[in-house]
Design brief:
- About 30% of the residues lie in helices and about 25% in strands.
- It is an alpha/beta fold and about 200 residues long.
- It has one domain (about 1-195): Maf protein, CATH 3.90.950.
- It has a 6-stranded mixed beta sheet.
- A hairpin with a 5-residue loop joins β4 (about 115-125) and β5 (about 130-140).
- The radius of gyration is 16 Å and the shape is globular.
- It starts with a strand and ends with a helix.
- The model has no long low-confidence stretch (mean pLDDT about 95).
Length: about 200
Amino acid sequence: MLTLVCATANPHKAKELEELLRALGSFTLLPRPLEVGDIVEDGETFEDNAILKAQAICAATGKAALADDSGLSVIALHGQPGVHSARYAGEDATDADNRTKLLTAMEGIEDRRATFTAAIAVAFPDEVIIVAEGEVHGTITTSLVGSRGFGYDPLFIPDEGDGRTFGEMTSDEKHALSHRRRALESLVEALRHAGRQ
């Protein structure tokens, strides 16, 4: 059983990570300590930011830490919002603010292809870092569809789905297709290969 401290401060993301790790096997995910302050996410890629967060929580707790950095990249917007997905509409932006800005930016654009990417890093106290990534391709809707999930879920229709947005799917349905699940599956394999699981 591998015990990991969760680096995310986003309760929705933490819940998804916990559900997915439970389904994938022998993991215990501890909550991020309340006394740990904000972590500066100034990396240029999802992987950079995941590593930054995992290292910071590992250093603060002395325990192995798991961090996720994820976001939506839209082809017609040259990859935006990308690593700035959570802060697309500003530092204190809500999910609704970010969705509104994206829909406004996409007005009149026919090519609505996009990719959800998740990079997940585990940092160990002996300075070993293991990282994995997962992606899911899809298209952006022209309006909000569905009230489930979080972030950009009501705007994203995965190519491999049945035409519904992530915002219309149950947690299990979303997990079956999601970038986060794919990243965690790759991470589990990498941990086993490295003898850490």
